TrEMBL record:
Belongs to the HGH1 family. It comes from Parasponia andersonii. Keywords: Repeat. Gene3D superfamilies: Leucine-rich Repeat Variant. Residues 96-269 form the Protein HGH1 N-terminal domain. Pfam families: DUF383 (PF04063), DUF384 (PF04064). ARM repeats lie at residues 46-75. Residues 275-328 form the Protein HGH1 C-terminal domain. It comes from the Eukaryota. This is Protein HGH1 homolog.
Length: 332
């Protein structure tokens, strides 16, 4: 004899929109508690595909279905099952339908599903030579669109997906491919007024710099964008003298020669400093850093710094610049 929960799950398959909506609303409510999540996990093989199918329904049904999947995907085992069932592909297909009304929730679902390798592999479409990287390029393009005129930034959480992907070697390789130019596009969001976007940008840059030994040339190819993104947050509040700015490229010197808003988030300063450190571990990277008067910038920035973690990151970089080689890389 079927239990109440089994009957509820069966109602998710109902051809009646009213019945399906009532069922999915209850399921969404259950995913909001630990007990509910555990109960639904016992029926994952039926619940997950039914919720996935409902993502293509009208908003009153697709929205609670997406919210339920976001909650369920916080469980590692359930997230792994979602990836195996092809929910990454389903989410991407629905996300880019012209009439999609649950974009923000689908992006949040993808954040959860790319926190482990199988989800990253699925999003990168690894193994499909013709399609590899297509989903990722779509997300980058959406992330890099201007969001200043949009009340709800549906793609702000893509920054977290970028960070997840950049923890993976194949993901970094894709980002650093000069023909695709993805990292260059992403870096341009470094001064976004949206803190989630900024965090995503700096986390992604930092992770890509872990490959500086092999990818330094590709990183320096975009130095016109990379150095301002990394150095402006750590430059402190001082208006720099003409003597200092004359030794910098225009994109740095013009900004540092006037009053500007400080970067208040110390985590961004730490990530920027760690990225510079990883680049500077390479001799050619140190030469590039000196060529933009980078040491002077971090010297001035250190004088204004008050956050202990950021001060430690300044000191680690300073020690490297003085002694010429590093001893310990930042942890991923």
């Amino acid at each position: 004899m079927a239990t109440e929960l089994e009957e509820l799950v069966d109602f998710l398959y109902s051809p009646s929109p009213q019945v399906a909506k009532a069922a999915v609303d209850i399921v969404r409510g259950l995913t909001g508690s630990d007990d509910g999540l555990r109960s639904l996990a016992n029926y994952a093989n039926k619940v997950l595909p039914s919720l996935s199918r409902l993502l293509s329904a009208a908003k009153e049904i697709s929205e609670p279905a997406a919210e339920a999947l976001v909650n369920l995907s916080q469980n590692f085992d359930l997230a792994a099952k979602m990836v195996d069932m092809g929910i990454v592909q389903t989410a991407m297909d629905v996300l880019y339908k012209p009439d999609s009304s649950i974009s923000r929730l689908l992006v949040m679902l993808l954040v959860n599903l790319t926190q482990f390798d199988a989800g990253i592999t699925s999003l990168l479409q690894t193994g499909d030579e013709k399609m590899q990287g297509l989903y990722y390029m779509k997300l980058v393009r959406s992330f890099c669109r201007s969001s200043s005129e949009i009340k709800e930034d549906a793609f702000e959480h893509v920054g977290s997906i970028l960070v997840n992907i950049s923890k993976n070697e194949a993901g970094r390789k894709l980002l650093l491919d000069p023909k695709r130019g993805l990292l260059k596009q992403i870096i341009r969001q470094y001064d976004s007024p949206n803190s989630l976007r900024r965090k995503g940008v700096y986390g992604t840059i930092r992770n890509c710099c872990f490959d500086a030994e092999n990818e330094l040339q590709n990183l320096l190819l975009i130095s016109e964008f990379l150095w301002p993104a990394l150095l402006l947050p750590v430059a402190g509040n001082k208006v720099y003298s003409e003597q200092d700015t004359s030794k910098m490229p225009l994109e740095l010197g013009s900004v540092l020669s006037i009053e500007r808003e400080p970067v208040v988030d110390p985590d961004i300063r730490v990530q920027a400093l760690e990225a510079i450190y990883l680049i500077s571990l390479q001799e050619a990277g140190r030469r590039a850093f000196w060529s933009v008067n980078g040491p002077r910038i971090v010297q001035v920035g250190y004088e204004d710094e008050e956050d202990p973690k950021a001060m430690e990151a300044y000191e680690q970089l300073g020690s490297l610049l003085i002694h010429g080689s590093g001893t310990e890389e930042p942890s991923t």
